[in-house]
Amino acid sequence: MTSSGDDLLKQSLFTQVGPDCDKYGPRKITIIGAGKVGMACGISILLKCQCTDLVFVSVTKEKLRGEVLDLQHGSLFLENIKIHEGDDYSVTTGSSVVIITAGERQHPDDPRLRLAQRNLNIYEKIVPEIARHSPNAILIVVTNPVDVMTYVAWKLSKFPRHRVIGSGTNLDSSRFRHLIAERLKVSPTSVHGWIAGEHGDSSVPIWSSVNISGKRLSTIHTKIGQKGGPEGWDAIHQQVIDGARDVVKLKGYTNWAIGLSCSAILSSIIFHKQSIHPVSCFVKGQYGITEDVCLSLPCVLNSNGVDSIVNVDLTEKETKMLQRSACAIADVQRGLSWKHAHD
Length: 343
Ligand code: NAD
Fold this sequence. Notes:
Elements: H1 3-13, E1 28-32, H2 36-47, E2 53-57, H3 61-72, E3 82-86, E4 97-100, H4 112-133, E5 138-141, H5 146-157, E6 164-166, H6 170-184, E7 191-192, E8 195-196, E9 204-205, E10 211-212, E11 215-216, H7 217-220, H8 236-251, H9 256-270, E12 275-282, E13 294-302, E14 305-309, H10 316-334
Parallel strand pairs: 1-2, 1-4, 2-3, 4-5, 5-6
Antiparallel strand pairs: 7-10, 8-9, 10-11, 12-13, 13-14
Helix pairs in contact: 2-9, 4-5, 6-8
């Protein structure tokens, strides 16, 4: 039936009372990149009913159309959340949160700088467009190396620092809590502990504060998680670091856990939860960090983005590790060549 035919049908069927609806509802979330990670973020958000409209932007037009059609066919089961797509950023206009997953994955043996440079080249095209169309949005950066890309997105968007958040070690902390929970036979939600620093090899396990119901494991064994500590516990941090590589070896990429992690971060933002997540943001000045970098510390998230960074106590060793992690990120950043001015 033609649209004028539809209009006639609707006029007979309905007696309109309210004003015409806008095309988009009040909570529009955009995902840039519709690859494995973008689609995993999308399904997590849809299943948790976190928006009225979900927009996907990608450069692979046909694949994008296929993914969106497939999801739209399930709208009966998804509270009729409207799903949109496009390769033009006008479709993203007025988004409250934009999740950026566009970019290449790390290949084994690929130096971090090479990946960072390739993804910087992509961000130089997309971030100014995102910022132009949604100047009040909060950005959640997922593309790797995520701490470098969070800094890049912050600079290119010119947004205030509290509105640019990297998914950071929210995922590493989930892996950490899962591994401890398995050993102690409790739920991961009952294990309190977190990973700070870079999402990557220089991440920092904060063993000094790992606790169950307030009982710190370091009061039972001072060397918990270290050489000379209880058997097997010193391997946990390495298992967290290797977590992504292990999954990639088996299935070629990671996506489900990062999708769930992003929707948890999103939930704290859109529902103004004031919940604490280890996420990446600009941290110069914290814990003696002198570098211009983003890395993960526990942050209170609300509808403004990062409300505050929690000033947790770290041991001297943990503080040093955190500073080294900042240096590792800064080293990569120094090697980048930018087309845009970024001061
Ligand atoms: P993928 O290759 O499956 O998808 C990448 C997507 O980016 C594709 O849809 C592609 O079309 C899109 N894209 C590329 N250039 C674009 C552009 N200019 N504009 C719009 N879209 C563009 O990759 P993936 O597995 O989805 O991974 C995406 C990124 O997420 C990678 O950098 C990966 O390393 C990262 N990642 C991060 C974490 C984390 O914890 N932060 C976890 C997993 C993956």
